[in-house]
From TrEMBL, chain A:
<dbReference type="InterPro" id="IPR055348">
    <property type="entry name" value="DctQ"/>
</dbReference>
<dbReference type="GO" id="GO:0022857">
    <property type="term" value="F:transmembrane transporter activity"/>
</dbReference>
<dbReference type="Pfam" id="PF04290">
    <property type="entry name" value="DctQ"/>
</dbReference>
<dbReference type="GO" id="GO:0015740">
    <property type="term" value="P:C4-dicarboxylate transport"/>
</dbReference>
<protein>
    <recommendedName>
        <fullName>TRAP transporter small permease protein</fullName>
    </recommendedName>
</protein>
<comment type="subunit">
    <text>The complex comprises the extracytoplasmic solute receptor protein and the two transmembrane proteins.</text>
</comment>
<feature type="transmembrane region" description="Helical">
    <location>
        <begin position="128"/>
        <end position="148"/>
    </location>
</feature>
<comment type="function">
    <text>Part of the tripartite ATP-independent periplasmic (TRAP) transport system.</text>
</comment>
<keyword id="KW-1133">Transmembrane helix</keyword>
Automatic annotation (TrEMBL), chain C:
<dbReference type="GO" id="GO:0005886">
    <property type="term" value="C:plasma membrane"/>
</dbReference>
<feature type="transmembrane region" description="Helical">
    <location>
        <begin position="366"/>
        <end position="390"/>
    </location>
</feature>
<dbReference type="InterPro" id="IPR010656">
    <property type="entry name" value="DctM"/>
</dbReference>
<feature type="transmembrane region" description="Helical">
    <location>
        <begin position="218"/>
        <end position="240"/>
    </location>
</feature>
<feature type="transmembrane region" description="Helical">
    <location>
        <begin position="342"/>
        <end position="360"/>
    </location>
</feature>
<feature type="transmembrane region" description="Helical">
    <location>
        <begin position="246"/>
        <end position="264"/>
    </location>
</feature>
<feature type="transmembrane region" description="Helical">
    <location>
        <begin position="172"/>
        <end position="198"/>
    </location>
</feature>
<protein>
    <recommendedName>
        <fullName>TRAP transporter large permease protein</fullName>
    </recommendedName>
</protein>
<keyword id="KW-0813">Transport</keyword>
């Protein structure tokens, strides 16, 4: 199981790094093509916006795995360990419910709607469904990471943590 | 949700313009008319200024069913309904009268109906005038003047192609960054209709406005098909009637705001140029030729014949 | 206020206290409020669409770029050179090291655009050094936390970009220009406090360096400082837009850190890309969730209601602006800057506009105000970082923070009631 999770982590990190590299190259190319070559690229603006959507949502899942999303932990920190475990589990469950309903289900609705109705992006001409697919993808990943966190809270000591 | 106590149906309309715009005023007029016709059982709430999203996103909200109505330009509709590309092609209408003849003909009506498979109900066309070039440093009298100029265009292949055919370097810049981009010289010019040129205050920077009127892209009033189907036949009739009234109101308000905008920019010292349009029409002929054997090409011939 | 607003606010605060991450607290509260008036499937689909739509903005692209260049500069030996430069210039004044701390934070904040990056980069150099010279570590930590916020106003600044989005399109170039004067004013005000504090405590001063050494240190810092000229010059000169400037800053800092200083190796780049992707995503998820929330707020007409309510209290601009400021200071103590800007801009900007304040001035005001919040307990990333580096506790640095707050508050009042401070530079440079 740990191996599978490690692979998943590497996969997410890989896409995130790739998207960061691409977004930089895209915008640098936009400046060069307009200012140096005087032949402005017509798709860079849209491509970089779509990459940002992917970075933001996929990166959100990555950041959830790293537990770096901003929160307010002053009260929970002061609770006795046993009670804290229950609160932290509740938090994970709330995040999972939100991701399941909104990102996974709502996002999948949006993807199927835009794919079914064949909505095409203005400049690149790609299907908007492919852009939106990062919504359910990120939702599914955060749900996985939430379950892993719950597992780590209850079933594992330090060494067995996933 | 439904309100069982008062049985008032609320139509929520989102749009991207400010409250001074003729479109907003026409929506208010629509709201008043529909309330009058329905005896107050249909109310309209308007959300201006992109509060609920941009045009493309609001079309999606109609499809999702969380918004009832919106106004969009025909160009973001291209991504949903490919036939709408026709309006982005330069010089397919002879003049404003021809433009409205086409919109009111079976061609216009068919195009409006073509949105229905996409869970949308096309209610009416609003006037959005014609788009023309404006520039910073040199006036545009003919396509030759556009050579080498970086012109901001809408994010669509047809718009990019139009500017290229006319000789300019088509540069996509987001609307929000355009004022500064013009000011700092990231682009040399842009194109839009007179009210937008005036209301966006781009005329403060771009001091030449060349009325070549290359494209006439109408605005379209859309309703969510889900909302439409939930209305009774009587309610649908009220909505249609109020909408037709608002169209007449908007066309007049548009003409007035176009005239006012041109007068105001002239008073501010902008040089408004009335170029020889035949030079521009000539320049896009190869573009029209290249479309001849396509569906769009057939439609162009039909429009030209009207 | 109607039940939608109450449901939204109550859910949000309960989740926040439970330590649900802020972005998810916003998302869940929005979902709860939306389900009161919209059916489940359209409600969740709309939230998903707004979360993606909130990120679908070209102006936001500057954020990953400035985060990336800030990270490259932080690891690339830039902080050290800036500190040496400040030390050579003002180190021999009373309270010299504290003044150097403030100036270094201003310079590093000016090029990195992030308060957190500034605190960690400057604090880890300056705090041990100040301790060695006999400075009280709580005072040193407080100064670092307060000074690191000047980079929020001095461009480039990610928070000003976030504001530009939230305000519905104020020019980023104009905001960048507008931030200079207030940012420098905050820095100077903090330096006055340091100066008085050092005089009173009789802290030792360092020896004045020979001119040749001073020139050497300034020269060594010049390539780093050139980034400021490159970014602002490129925007004003029409070579690139404010958004594209971020990408150019990345390229320049890469050349400097990898090619010239050689303090970052190409092998470290994947990790830098990943870390900056992560930081970007934290901000982006906040923006996405806040976009969904502000959709809900608009849908329920809440901003208009609050705005009408506030204008009913008084029609005196001085009173209302003071009220807005005090409310924002309380908000800023609990909420991080990005969500605070995203949530409160659409609510208070119409009120300020009604009173005749320009969106430009309002932006500088809200960012300066929330800068105070950024370094006030209980919530504030820069506070946690400085406390960790200085090995002190949050409650111990509150007392030395108080005079620094007072200095910042004075500048806040000047910015609130005198438009000139925000509007003179943009007008001068015609942006
Ligand atoms: Na900065
Ligand atoms: Na705080």
């Amino acid at each position: 199981m740990r191996k599978v999770i490690r692979l998943l982590d590497q996969f997410v990190a890989g896409i995130l790094m790739l998207a960061m590299t691409l977004i930089l190259l895209t915008v640098v190319w936009q400046v060069i093509s307009r200012y140096v070559l005087a032949d402005p690229a017509s798709v860079t603006e849209e491509l970089s916006r779509f990459l940002l959507i992917w970075i933001g949502l996929l990166g959100a899942a990555f950041a959830y795995r790293q537990k770096v999303h901003l929160g307010f932990n002053l009260i929970v920190e002061k609770q006795p360990p046993e009670r804290r475990k229950y609160i932290l589990t509740l938090v994970e469950l709330l995040v999972i419910i939100f991701c399941a309903s909104t990102l996974l289900f709502g996002g999948a609705q949006l993807v199927s709607l835009t794919l079914e109705l064949e909505q095409i992006s203005a400049a690149l001409g790609v299907r908007m469904g492919y852009v939106y697919i990062v919504l359910p993808l990120s939702g599914a990943l955060i749900i996985c990471y939430g379950l892993i966190n719950i597992h780590n809270l209850w079933l594992a000591d330090e060494e067995e943590a996933w | 949700g439904t309100d069982s106590e008062s049985k008032v149906t609320t139509l929520r309309i989102g749009h991207t313009l400010d409250t001074q715009h003729s479109v907003h005023k026409a929506m208010e007029y629509f709201g008043a008319r529909v309330a009058e016709l329905s005896g107050g059982t249909i109310e309209v709430k308007i959300y201006p200024g992109s509060q609920l999203g941009n045009e493309r996103e609001m079309i999606e909200l109609l499809q999702i069913g969380s918004l009832s109505m919106t106004k969009v330009s025909a160009s973001p509709l291209e991504g949903f309904v490919p036939a709408m590309k026709i309006f982005s092609i330069p010089y397919i209408f002879r003049d404003n009268a021809h433009f409205w003849t086409v919109l009111n003909s079976h061609i216009g009506k068919t195009l409006l109906q073509e949105v229905e498979p996409f869970r949308l109900k096309g209610l009416a066309y609003y006037d959005a005038g014609s788009r023309s070039f404006y520039s910073n440093n040199k006036p545009i009298h003919s396509p030759a003047d556009l050579a080498g100029m970086k012109i901001r265009v809408l994010n669509s292949p047809t718009a990019v192609r139009t500017v290229r055919e006319l000789g300019g370097a088509a540069t996509p810049v987001s609307w929000g960054e355009l004022y500064t981009a013009l000011q700092q010289g990231v682009v040399d010019g842009a194109e839009n209709n007179p009210p937008s040129y005036y209301l966006s205050r781009h005329y403060e920077i771009a001091r030449y406005y060349s009325l070549d009127e290359h494209t006439s892209v109408p605005d379209i009033m859309l309703m969510s098909l889900r909302t439409w189907d939930n209305l009774s036949a009587q309610q649908q009739a009220w909505v249609s009637e109020a909408m037709q009234d608002s169209v007449l109101f908007q066309r007049q308000a548009w003409q007035q705001s176009t005239a006012e905008s041109l007068a105001k920019v002239k008073a501010d010292g902008v040089e408004v140029i009335y170029p020889d349009k035949t030079l521009f029409v000539e320049a896009v002929k190869p573009f029209h030729e290249s479309l001849r054997d396509t569906e769009v090409g057939a439609l162009i011939s039909e429009i030209k014949a009207l | 206020m109607d039940y939608t607003a109450i449901a939204l606010i109550v859910t949000f605060f309960v989740l926040l206290l439970l330590n649900v991450p802020i972005s998810f607290s916003i998302g869940i509260a929005t979902l709860v409020a939306m389900l009161l008036s919209i059916d489940f499937t359209p409600a969740v689909t709309t939230i998903a669409q707004r979360m993606a739509g909130g990120l679908d903005s070209f102006a936001l692209l500057a954020i990953p770029f400035f985060v990336l260049s800030g990270m490259i500069m932080g690891r690339g030996g830039i902080a050290k050179r800036l500190i040496n430069c400040a030390l050579a210039l003002i180190g021999s004044l009373p309270g010299g090291l504290a003044l150097v701390n403030v100036v270094s934070c201003m310079l590093f904040g000016a090029i990195s655009g992030s308060a957190v990056a500034t605190t960690s980069a400057i604090g880890s150099f300056m705090l041990p050094e100040m301790k060695k010279q006999g400075y009280d570590e709580n005072f040193s930590a407080a100064v670092t936390a307060a000074a690191s916020t000047t980079g929020m106003l001095i461009p480039p600044s990610n928070i000003l970009i976030v504001y530009a989005i939230a305000s519905g399109g104020v020019s980023i170039a104009a905001l960048f220009m507008a931030g200079y004067l207030p940012g420098v004013m905050v820095g100077l005000a903090l330096m006055v406090v340091c100066f008085i504090h050092a005089k009173r405590k009789g802290y030792a001063t360092t020896a004045r360096l020979p001119l040749k050494v001073v020139l050497q240190q300034v020269g060594a810092a010049l390539p780093s400082l050139f980034l400021i000229i490159l970014v602002i010059g490129g925007i004003v000169g029409g070579i690139f837009t404010a958004t594209e400037a971020g990408a150019i800053a990345v390229v320049y800092s890469l050349i400097l850190a990898v090619g010239v200083y050689r303090e970052v190796t190409p092998k470290q780049l994947p990790d830098i890309l990943l870390k900056s992707g992560e930081t970007t995503a934290i901000v982006m998820l906040l923006i996405g969730a806040s976009t969904a929330m502000s959709w809900m707020l608009s849908y329920a007409n809440i901003p208009q209601n609050i705005s009408e309510f506030m204008l009913d209290i008084s029609d005196n601009p001085i009173v209302i602006l003071l009220l807005i400021n005090l409310l924002l200071i309380v908000v800023g103590a609990f909420l991080d800057m990005t969500p605070a800007v995203l949530i409160f801009t659409p609510i208070f900007l119409p009120v300020a506009a009604e009173l005749g304040m320009s969106p430009l001035q309002f932006g500088i005001m809200i960012v300066l105000n929330l800068s105070i919040g950024l370094c006030s307990p209980p919530v504030g990333a820069v506070l946690f970082i400085t406390c960790a580096i200085a090995k002190t506790r949050l409650d111990k640095i509150i007392k030395p923070l108080l005079p620094l707050y007072a200095a910042m508050f004075v500048v806040l009042m000047l910015v609130t009631y005198v438009a000139w401070f925000s509007e003179a530079l943009p007008a001068l440079f015609g942006v």
